[in-house]
Fold these 4 entries.
Entry 1:
Amino acid sequence: MTDSLTFSALKEKQRAIRAGFPETMGLRVHRSISWIGRAEACGDDHDARFIFLWIAFNAVYADEREFQWVAPGERAAIVDYFGKLLARAEERRVYKALWQRFSGPVRMLMENRFVFNPFWQHQNGIDGFEDWEERFRTSSRSFAQAFQAGDSVRVLSFVFDRLYVLRNQLVHGGSTWNSGVNRAQVRDGAAILGFLLPVFVDLMMDNPKEDWGRPFYPVVE
């Protein structure tokens, strides 16, 4: 069960098998688990929990392409990571984790316009986004179809498109800490990252020989 994948469980597994990890993959997992542990200590501070879990997510997927002068975009790196992660035979674990929570935070997040980027484009007066409501309905239908088809990569892409808007709101100062406004998406976003990140890390530990990419900030003596 995904609920058993706590910081302690992940750390215990990592210590038991880390001798067989390639250096770069081992560093990613070590860093991500440390931030998952920090997120667990946040209690009901959903803002902090979300931010710490996003750092844990960055630790497992971000690579040197994001730090080049002309980067291909963070979304491309995220989708590449999902492709590698879900190419494994255990990919159904991710789908099951989403399905178990579908009626809760996943569905609520996907129905929340405040984490839909075209909504904010329209609110800020940018031309071409007057039809944001139709785009929102289309996105919801496409997400439902991907879920029904069991297309885990597309499902995760939809979910993380929403989570990325939330990430930007928090990290770029577009939100007040512990605000009484728009609490739902912060709570739901933290819940989604909280049950997905441990599964991601566990899958990586089960497949250490996969090329998970080189972290741009290695340990330098």
Entry 2:
Amino acid sequence: MTYETKRCPFCAEGINRDAIKCKHCGEMLYANTQATHTAQNHTVVMRYRRWSPGVAALLSFFIPGVGQMYKGDVGTGIAWLIVTYIGYFLLIIPGLILHLICIITAASGDPYK
């Protein structure tokens, strides 16, 4: 059986070009990744998502803005922290609304775009 091959980025063994999982090392090749192929040298460039939306939301639930900091957006996280605490200081309702918005924005979006 002949088929086009490529190298596994984890163990460097030859695998089927359309493979989703390496048959040699068992690593998933395209889970939470973006892959691009270049025609001349068949290089695979992979980018992993290094954050979890659930963890980001949970962190922002306990401390507003920490979920954004966890995603790597420190400036936005500090701004959410300050604005949410000001909302709580002024009145409880604006603080709760800002806190909920902070949790939702921590769990959404892609900081790698």
Entry 3:
Amino acid sequence: MSDDSEETERTKRLVAAWRGAERKLSRSLLEPTVGELLGSLAEAPYDMDGPADVYGDGVVTALERKVADLLGTEDAAFFPTGTMAQQIALRCWAGRTGNPVVALHPMSHPERWEGEALTAVSGLRVAHPTTEARPPSAADVEALREPFGTLMVELPLRDAGFLLPTWEELEALTDAARERDAVVHFDGARLWESTVHFGRTLPEIAGLADSVYVSFYKSLGGLSGAALAGPREFVEETRVWRHRYGGQVFRQFPQALSALAGLDRELPRLPSYVAQARMVAGALRPAFADSGVPWARINPEEPHTHQFQVWLPYEADRLTEAGLRQAEETGTVLFRRWSADGPPGLAVTELEITQPGLSWTESDVHEAVSAFVARI
């Protein structure tokens, strides 16, 4: 059997175990069936006898108005993908500033997960204020030698551990960019849950930037899709480029309905998810120690959002298999997939706490860790 075939079979086994488990901290995006996803569309707060959409009107327009209201911006535009949305936003700002250089972290999404699309597709160049696994600081921006037209800030910085700066650091960072005559764009794929850490409202957070991108599936559980929000004239320009990039899809009402449902159902719950994530993170440390694990790291020690990293000194495949066996044999999902994306001998996974995990107690975490370690 080829490596690809083995991985496909393992994925099927993982998803089956996750679906069959009675206890879990969250539900994987791979778990829902077609029927379940279609059924969830009926939960959207939208008149089902109303218009669908034709090239972005109807329910898509309703979603755009909702996002603009939530973020406190003049306008918002729906995009089929966040990759397209951000490329277009950065391209438009480059045209307006006359500078094609984008200052961003090397661990940010465009640098790690988009195949160098900013350069290959949009003709932009990048500069890195810092290479450290933390959000960039005002001092980093001030010290950047090359002039840049746009500062892109990923909130939170997912690959570094879903990290956020403090509110004061974020204010100083945006001020530093404007002192360099640059505009500020927030990669807010997971911006929705950052209000707890910042202690600020969504309009206050979005108000620090010239434009903001938000995702509809990463925290809200939508089918797919994203939005760009900002000044009306700027958003109108991005709509022109959306058509040029092939994003003017004839009908997108399923994505728009699922986004509205997520905003209605998940957005109010996110603060409770963050609080529960902090409880789980705090319980994991003594649970690993009591189970005889020689070393473990929770990153960050107190999660900034409802997602965080766990590092252990074992092979990634071994840990993934242990988690799979735990799900199959006990009906409990603690960890899902592990990655070797780090120093040799260490593996990392991401934990996300959502509605299924709200009932967990510290005792539940200790019990699940003990069962997991026993299967390593």
Entry 4:
Amino acid sequence: MPVDFTPRERSAFDDMSGISILRPRMLPASVSERTGTIEFQYSFRRDGRDVGSLGFLGTEELVETDGRRERIYTLDLSPGKVVEDILRFKQGIGNADRDAEFLQGLAQGLANAFAGQTSNVDDLRYVVVAHADDLARVGISVPDGSARLTDGSIVLADVFVPAH
């Protein structure tokens, strides 16, 4: 059965594996050529113990639609090293899902870790992407029905958190 990380207050939890994805630390990245760059630092826990971690870059953008403000966070699992780290984590926890299935389930968990927020004044959207070339390099084909962005990135998961 594929991983299914459901939102909790400050995390996402998979019943089958007993793993929680904690809401990450979000820090300004030291990459100077991209504005709005954020470093996301996730921890994975099982039974109160750390079982893994994952760090990668993303961006934040503020948009206004129909008079409502929305902050869009893009969590970018490219370059391929991040996808390789995810597959090593999969192996380390003994998960038997197909690689593409696990990647998509974990990506949804990364987004779902934010879903339980209740103190945000703006609408929030978290979108997890990976570049199709990076997926192909590790032998993962683009999941069926995935949205493809103009830069060749594939949307693996997303979550919308309305303003509270």
